[in-house]
Amino acid sequence: MGGERIERREFLGQVASAAAGAIMALHTSSEISSGMEVRKVGRIKQSVCWWCFVRGDMKPEKLIKEAAAIGFASVEMGPQQYWDTIREHGMKIAIVSGHGTLTDGLNRRENHKRIEEELLRNIELAAKYEIPSLIVFSGNRRGISDEEGINNTVEGLLRVVKFAEEKGINLCIELLNSKYDHKDYQCDRTWWGVEVCKRVNSPRVKLLYDIYHMQIMEGDLINTIRRNINIIGHFHTAGVPGRRDLDDEQEINYRAVMRAIAATNYDGYVGHEFIPKGDPIQALRHAFEVCNV
User: Fold this and answer.
1) Is beta strand 95-97 parallel, antiparallel or unpaired with respect to 74-76?
2) Structural domains for the chain
3) CA 235 centroid distance within chain
4) Residue 232 and which of 5, 194, 215, 267 are 20 to 30 A apart at CA?
5) What is the pLDDT of residues 137-183, one digit of tens each?
């Protein structure tokens, strides 16, 4: 992510044992009261990605309180010590990391035993806290072909998928760009992640479709989302270029993308994973309104 950005892989390593939250029943007619303001909540269940916003002077408790007041349904990827506070504010934890670093992932057999142990532990924890999904990673290529990487990733997921099915927890393999932010990451195209999901052939193995990353790698966002919505378990957002706010200085028409998602049968969450340019609460409020369709 470069420059002033926090390294996400470092953050995920710190919270790899995290898991909490459940799907929140929000409807078009739902309303959130914030002081004198009453805000209608649309069809998209929006979530705040912890690591992007708990930075600088932002205190965790303030982020949680403000997110709830804005109308967010979830705060995700945060440390376990704050899960109860999030839930006490009427929100869920939509998704957390299921295993360790994203560079050493499921595409290498030597990682399978470790990842299996981590996932089994975190699936149990997710079920306890009603977390619907865990993030899993392909890992970096390091010379592995696409076919070998897919086969190994499928093999690794098959070690835990029955337990995930029993507990009702989604395992979402994340799509990341290998052009700028995650050099050499293998699951960097939608087709690769789709092929993994098809071969595992479980309703609990899905994609984490990161809109920011896939705009960089392939574009064609709305068509791709429509074609694959049945195997998408979670979304992430950020502005392109720069992974900044969802404003008019970046190239993605997020309102159009959200309308396309809302028009499908998708009932999961959309997590905002961008680095705010200025005041984080103002940035979150603006992102919420852009995506509140």
Assistant:
1) unpaired
2) 8-291 (3.20.20.150)
3) 5
4) 5
5) 999 999 999 999 999 999 999 999 999 999 999 999 999 999 999 99
